[in-house]
Specification:
- 2 copies of one chain form a homodimer.
- Chain A is α+β, with helices and mostly antiparallel strands.
- In chain A, strand 9 and strand 10 form a beta hairpin.
- Chain A is about 35% helix and about 25% strand.
- The interface between A and B is large, with 43 and 43 residues.
Chain lengths: ~300, ~300
């Protein structure tokens, strides 16, 4: 089968729904592309669209999305809580199923070069697609945001884009294009309202404080008037093949038990790779000799 | 997306691998069809091929398979342990993903009529595709097997086929064509070699002795020289939407505990619908608000 790729562009517009609807329409009009999700945040003044298809179709849809965003979103007027450098701020490509991350790296670089030329837009390659090592982290690419880039582009050689002109696009600013592994947003709600326990557990498991590799975690208190209050361990698993759902759940269960509480229930936010969810099946049943290829639809997707 | 359908024809040949290879080749040559599995049993002198695709492609491949089987397998020469009425003995169509069982019923009837005409082959509709209620059970259709049909066809009006002539095909005999839900072959191995416990549990959970709906189960002793001996509860879940993996595992765990033992591990044989496996994920994590559509590849398969 042709390699399936997911694309998750972020746009600097979260207050005018009609603008995001137009961009989503431009993406969905491309044959062979499926729009999986889109969401909008008023405080951040930012939207995220998720779509998928094969490389050729995804590039066509992403190009259409950039074109519409440059027409409809004017960075000279933009304010919002979230860091950003352009109308379409960041465009990551993510492998699906048996697609390799390297294919997304190649695609991000080709796509970046192409839109830089087509729209005269400065393009920074980040994540796995970064060419300069100091651009792997998105936070470094976005340092000082749109306003700093406006002053430094063409002056500070360190801010020279990977593709495109050394000046901002008049309306659209600049864009970061990259490749990354799929990310799983997964929350564990504890049978307690003591948020200090969730914070301690989050601290113990997250990579940045010496915990489990490829785990980001924080402790928060969920307050929903119609429900009991739960202390929540809220996580991003940024490389589930290194640390997957079973490993974090076992560790949180152990730490919760030590703290005198237990897991009440869990939540999966948005989409996750099927194979990452089937790891839980195999773990829970102690399945011997199991392969995700035994899931009929996954097997068919691989072979077709 | 066009409806995906699985087809699992059984052939009365398990001793000449080259014959089955030719049939598999005939199936695999049809564009848009994926051969998922094939297996051969010498004692039963019988083979099973599993393939999938959309309705049109599956019909084309199944027709090619019948044609080859009629050329290559001569029922007048066949002996074997398994009940059978023809060279291609039984052809069930099974819905995949969001395909409805009714589509498979329609397809089985159209396909049955078509091959009856094309090959002058008597066709009996069974399972959900049965028109006569006394033909729902395959065992009833196959009563007395090939040898009895040879005597009764054209004489006993009860054996009149649903389509085709009231006489056996000179080489191929007759065929049963049907539709059924996907079947999950799932085994639970207990931490004991006491097969009496597995037999008691199997008796308690199987539908035929008043247990759980749509569960077939038996207790067997696994003897593998390189492993400990396990008493096994071996199951077919013939309608996982009525009784799925989590329900049988919880019940077996409870019964095993009552019998002073526990589940050691489980085995999934062959393929299973992804949604049936994700039920285990949701159950094990106590996932709130989960939908199988959150599995990326399933969601894409649905929308494309």
């Amino acid at each position: 089968m042709p390699s399936l790729i997911e694309c998750v562009p972020n746009f600097s517009e979260g207050r005018r729904p009609e603008v995001i609807e137009e961009i989503v329409r431009a993406i969905g009009q491309i044959d062979g592309v499926t729009v999986l999700d889109h969401s909008r945040d008023v405080t951040h003044n930012r939207s995220v669209v998720t779509f998928a298809g094969n490389a050729e179709h995804v590039v066509r849809a992403a190009t259409a999305a950039v074109g519409r965003a440059l027409e409809l979103i004017d960075m000279t007027q933009h304010t919002g809580a979230h860091p950003r450098i352009g109308s379409v701020d960041v465009i990551p490509f993510v492998p699906i199923g048996s697609t390799r991350l390297e294919e997304c790296v190649d695609l991000a670089r080709r796509f970046g070069e192409q839109i830089a030329k087509l729209f005269e837009l400065p393009v920074y390659l980040y994540g796995e697609a970064a060419i300069r090592p100091d651009r792997r982290r998105l936070a470094d690419v976005r340092r000082g945001q749109y306003e700093a880039l406006k002053l430094e582009l063409g002056v500070n050689p360190d801010r020279e884009p990977d593709f495109g002109p050394a000046r901002l696009h008049p309306r659209g600013g600049a864009v970061a294009v990259g490749a990354r592994k799929p990310l799983i947003a997964f929350n564990v709600n504890l049978a307690t309202a003591d948020v200090a326990i969730a914070k301690r557990i989050a601290h113990a498991i997250r990579e940045s404080s010496g915990g489990m590799p490829a785990v980001q975690a924080m402790g928060v208190l969920l307050e929903n008037p119609r429900e009991p209050r739960y202390a929540q361990v809220s996580m991003n698993l940024v490389d589930w093949e290194r640390t997957g759902i079973p490993a974090v759940v076992h560790e949180i269960r152990r730490l919760a038990h030590d703290a005198g509480t237990e897991i009440d229930h869990c939540e999966l936010i948005g989409l996750a790779p099927t194979a990452a969810l089937l790891e839980v099946t195999a773990d829970a049943l102690g399945l011997r000799g199991f392969s995700p290829d035994q899931a009929l639809e996954l097997r068919l997707a691989r072979d077709r």
